[in-house]
Design a protein that fits this description.
mainly alpha, about 375 residues, single chain
């Protein structure tokens, strides 16, 4: 595959950038809780953001192995994922622990005050990178086993399932099964420990495997991308009742097992239909190269890794100011971006940090000054 898949790059960036409003609302809610609107926004982001990320990650993992081989894949991911994860856990997570504990009266981590935060390693908001490492390892191990047994048959079966018109409904069943232990009907963030939650690892592994199949099965991605409307109709039918059940889950009578299963099935169907529909929408509107979108896609990983300490610090600075929660959340998002987005171009994109995060990037040539402007400038200088 020689052409660059700009729309998949953009979807991966979207899954990264949506963490800003998510974390802004979470930080605002640390002091006074969240209202129904904020809960709905958090839920809507939760429905598709990380499943979309793992699906695209699975696709690009298969792409790198297919193009460069397993050894180069391991080297590439050790740099792109391993180094940021290690640096983040050692240097960034302790700062966040201090900041969150300063924002609330309830200790964020027991016995983690002061320097104790450095003796309490946990993935925090970088947990998804840790799960990605685990999925890489599991996939490489299973890939060798599957290739030795019946790779063509399994690939064909997976491709037929994903390309079926009812794929979101069929895939909702195993997806809901892996979410069965989630009491609030959405997947929790396993951010407090490096011990993996096997049900959540399997949940995200389904989307990772689907992304892998999109590359490994000839023509599968193209067939899915041709019919976004079909998937988005399913989204329109499943998303509203899933959201309603989530917002009303504390009401009497909704804590029964049948309602729990129904809520998970609706959530899972909405997730699959939305991310499959987004593949088609992104291809239709974002397949052509765009310098601006490419710049944002390159910057998105840096924005994700660097945003939380700064956003929490801003939350501390404005904690004593009286304002609506929506305004406070908006300030957190835009004030954070105002700092870290220019910092990407100045200190990251063409430096060693940028080479770690996304590889080398050529500097954009400066646009030439038009000849007519040069002549007018020379004439003005001569008259002076």
């Amino acid at each position: 595959m020689s052409e660059r898949l700009h729309h998949l790059d953009a979807l991966r960036a979207l899954s990264m950038l949506l963490i800003l409003p998510f974390h802004a609302i979470v930080l605002v809610g640390l002091r006074g809780g969240t209202n129904t609107l904020e809960d709905g926004i958090l839920w809507a982001i939760h429905v598709f953001r990380l499943p979309l990320f793992f699906l695209v990650a699975g696709f690009f993992a298969a792409l790198v192995i297919d193009a460069r081989g397993t050894r180069e894949f391991l080297r590439n991911r050790a740099v792109r994922i391993g180094i940021p994860l290690f640096v983040g856990v050692v240097a960034i997570v302790p700062w966040i622990t201090w900041e969150i504990q300063a924002l609330t009266d309830i200790p964020h981590r027991e016995d983690a005050g002061g320097l104790g935060a450095f003796a309490d390693p946990h993935p925090a908001f970088l947990w998804f990178l840790w799960y990605l490492v685990l999925l890489y390892a599991a996939t490489l191990a299973l890939r060798r086993l599957v290739n030795a047994i019946a790779a063509p048959g399994l690939l064909s079966l997976g491709g037929r399932l994903l390309s079926h018109w009812a794929a979101p409904l069929l895939l909702a069943v195993p997806t809901a099964l892996f979410l069965y232990r989630q009491p609030t009907w959405i997947p929790d963030a396993p951010a407090e420990t490096f011990s993996p939650r096997l049900d959540l690892l399997a949940y995200y592994g389904l989307f990772f495997l689907a992304g892998w199949l999109l590359l490994a099965t000839p023509g599968l991605r193209e067939r899915i991308e041709r019919r976004p409307r079909q998937y988005l109709i399913v989204t329109g039918l499943t998303l509203p009742p899933a959201l309603a059940l989530y917002l009303l889950q504390s009401q009497p009578g909704l804590g029964t097992r049948p309602i729990h299963i129904l809520a998970l099935l609706l959530f899972a169907a909405a997730t699959w239909s939305l991310i499959l529909g987004l593949l088609g929408v992104a291809h239709r509107h974002g397949a052509k190269p765009s310098r601006r979108i490419r710049y944002w896609t390159d910057a998105s990983y840096w924005i994700y890794l660097s945003h939380f300490p700064l956003m929490a610090a801003i939350a501390l600075l404005i904690a004593g100011l009286a304002m609506p929660d929506s305004l406070r959340a908006g300030i957190l998002v835009f004030a954070t971006l105002i700092v870290i987005f220019p910092a990407y171009g100045a200190f990251v994109r063409h430096t060693a940090i940028g080479r770690v995060l996304h590889g080398p990037r050529a500097r954009e040539p400066k646009p030439p000054v038009r000849r007519g402007l040069n002549r007018r400038a020379e004439a003005a200088e001569h008259r002076a």
